[in-house]
Amino acid sequence: MVIKGIIVSSGYSFGSAFVLNEKKVDLNFNKITFDKVDDEIKLFVKSHIKTINQLKKIRLKIKKQNKDKKLLFDGYIMLLEDNNLKEDIINLIKNELMYADNATNIIIKKHINDIKKIDNIYLQDRVIDILDIGKRLIYNIKNLDFIDFNFSNIKDKIIIVTKDLLPSQIIQFNLKKIVGFITELGSLTSHTSIIAKSLNLPAIIGVKNITNIIFNNDYLILDAVDNKIYINPCKNIFNTLKNKYNSFLFKRKQLIKLKNLPAITTDGHEIKLFANIANDKDIKFLIKNNIKGVGLYRTEFLFMDRKSLPSEEEQFLSYKKIAKLMKNFPVTIRTVDLGGDKFLPYMKFPKEDVSCLGWRAIRICMDRKDILYSQLRAILRASVYGKLRIMFPMIISMEEIFFLKNEIQKLKLQLLEEKHDFDDNIKIGAMIETPAAAIISKYLSEELDFFSIGTNDLTQYTLAVDRNNSMISHLYEPLSPSVIHLIKYVIDSVNPDVKSLSICGELASDERAIILLLGLGIKELSMNINNIPKVKQIICNNSLSFAKKLSTDVLSKCTVNDVLSILIKDK
Ligand code: PEP
Ligand code: MG
Fold first, then answer.
1. Is 276 helix (H, G, I), strand (E, B) or coil?
2. Reported pTM
3. DSSP 467
């Protein structure tokens, strides 16, 4: 039997099914009598402390393995220690005469519903974190054991099959025994999926009813490359999949071997490959993998998973750390790109009908000078430690650039007065991710030092297709002739021989697009670190002269289908 779902982390795994059916917890919906209130509050407080201690224990255990995972637990503990949550539950027990388990369940659900009302993908993914905390609290109130994965008795390799996995559960997986997982629920951007990817643990989510289809000890093959789950497959299938798996491993190893080679076409043209990062912890990985620059640091992630805006000092320390580690390699710090689909729980955002066209990115920073100034001051102060560059997102006009350059100048004078050092020649650039910026790129290039084409947004705004709306996702095609022509227009206006011009949207690592982009004149690409070897291989196997012919051919086509038929044929 073969079943499909959504791949969140690719690879193959072979093992026995371990079906996790959660214990059913019966909540007590009765009312307590007044004389029981203190007991129930005590029970809650005791469980609350116990939950924090359990989480601290897990945090300590995983701290040595992975600092990123530790951060998630810091977030959990912070949420639990938040007095509002605790007080809300105690108040319900006191005022509504509720049992502690019932009161906890109600407050956790209320938090989740509040979040669900906000139209924001990032926050929706935090629902599972709150659920995780709520479950732990209730299990402790009821004195039940929470499933904290300890598979010490299991000898086989196992594949977890469950309704949903909590981040705090996957973090504890013993990867020698657990080789993959399948869930009924989940989303691509949830913490669970993010952790699965970082662990290289094959995983397929969103498989309806899977816990009723698969039984314990069924033999499973998880093909998280072609998106198939085989249940008790025959020997032939097993052998075929083993061969696929071996060639997958071989390919991965071959790609890793490329890490010390530059990306040079067969006719000798070098393409610079940089990394997109979301935090300063990725830097060590970059250095280990010989990646010579950051093309995009999405700093908004520095503002998330916390209770208030990061101070200038906190930002300074993060930027300084990156600058020092990357030494003379360029690090492009994009000023915070909030709004659209990225919100902060501690900051008020207006309710907008079309948030991607609203109060977003540089527009927020131009209104909220406190945010702009603290970030620019932090970058400037850190700039003496390496080769930092400032990049502005969502630019649509020259007025914005004049304003921002003037602000930087003012801040430099301020820093001089305060006797802070900074790199006076720090490079200033912009994302080209709106059609407006693309059309005025010639003027922009007279004022700025470098550019990066954000094809994710450029596609969204050129085609007027919301990149987060699944109803119209079939219309979202960065390889549409209109987007390709706009990219070509920017390349001609900016001239990559004169000014640094990269691509940092997902198109930069789209296998169909690499040769085309080179042929159009792109010399720098920035992408998710894991995609660099694959892109490097494509570059090393092709010539620029072929790429130019291909791009001329593509530019002569007026439909997506015609473009794709060239790119897929020649891939
Ligand atoms: C882009 O729009 O292509 C881009 C790189 O920025 P983000 O995906 O962060 O909006
Ligand atoms: Mg963008």
1. strand
2. 0.68
3. T
